[in-house]
Amino acid sequence: MSQTILELANIHKTFQNGTPNENHVLRGLDLTVHKGDYISIIGGNGSGKSTLLNATAGVFRLDKGHIILNHEDITNHTEEQRATVISRVFQDPMMGTAPRMTVAENLAIALNRGNKRGFKRTLNEKNYNRFEKILADVGLNLEDKLTSEVGSLSGGQRQVIALLMATIKKPDILLLDEHIAALDPKATEQVMRLTEERIKENDITSLMVTHNMNHAIEYGNRLIMMDQGRVVIDISGEEKENLTVPELVELFNRESGKELIDNEMLFG
Ligand SMILES: Nc1ncnc2c1ncn2[C@@H]1O[C@H](COP(=O)(O)OP(=O)(O)OP(=O)(O)O)[C@@H](O)[C@H]1O
Ligand SMILES: [Mg+2]
Predict the structure, then answer these.
(1) Atom 2 of ligand 1: nearest residue by CA position
(2) Which residues have beta carbons under 5 A from ligand 2 (an ion)?
(3) Region 42-67 average pLDDT
């Protein structure tokens, strides 16, 4: 039996409660994540994918339900507390990095995460050489950019740095929210390849939201589909490996009762 690392139990979240715009987004969501799972998450616009990740990261208080991480109830832990063990990469390359700081400084901040002392001490020669090696391994000539400000990099390069920052100190959970959606096709493939490498090499339990059905099938050991704030499909193992895009579209339409797939979802 695989070990449970994260459990979301009967999660409810309503935005703008008590107003005419009240929106009950997560509606009794249950999800058990096993150690080492790499889960791709798909679902229509507004189905609650980002809200699921935000709930896990502790961005807001839940109306109801529990979140258990490593057998500890973290439902009432703040976002800051969780940030020491849960890391994220967002769709927007501008988020997740400090633009006015250098690549080396950003990586040092990430490596220093959870430490009360400032990151400056982390920026020593040993770590500098380590960063250089990590960047050289990525293969995008980023090792020449260690002293450049992150704000001067391309979107793809920034996502590479964001991904390295999120994984340099192995998190318990990595949350990826359409982290390639703003990139051109070449950068998309580079960042997806790096994502796969970082997750596999460090054995990081990961949840990845994507609108790209091919990526959802190609990456990860498990695929879940959300609809109206709940997990409606949960496929893993051989069943996932053998899945085709038309079958997934068919499943989606059947489960959601709508023809919701747009071209973006099909072809990224
Ligand atoms: N902070 C917030 N305040 C108010 N409403 C919100 C907030 N965050 C999300 N919502 C609403 O909750 C619903 C679900 O949003 P969410 O971002 O989780 O959807 P999603 O599945 O990620 O969609 P997309 O594919 O468009 O990213 C939407 O109607 C959205 O407007
Ligand atoms: Mg979203």
Answers:
(1) 15
(2) 49-50
(3) 97
Domains annotated for the chain, with CATH where assigned, are 4-85+173-267 (3.40.50.300), 98-170 (no CATH)
The closest residue, in CA terms, to atom 3 on ligand 1 is 15
- What DSSP line would sit under 173-227, residue for residue? EEEEESTTTTS-HHHHHHHHHHHHHHHHHHT-EEEEE-S-HHHHHHSSSEEEEEE
**Ligand 1: does its nearest atom lie under 6 Å from the Cβ of 51?**
yes
Record the pTM: 0.94
Residue showing tokens 């849960």: 86
Contact between 43 and 261 (Cβ < 8 Å): no
How many angstroms is it from 35 CA to the middle of ligand 2? 24
- The model's pLDDT over 213-223, given as tens digits with 9 standing for 90+, comes to 999 999 999 99
Asked whether the beta carbons of 159 and 187 are under 8 A apart, the reply is yes
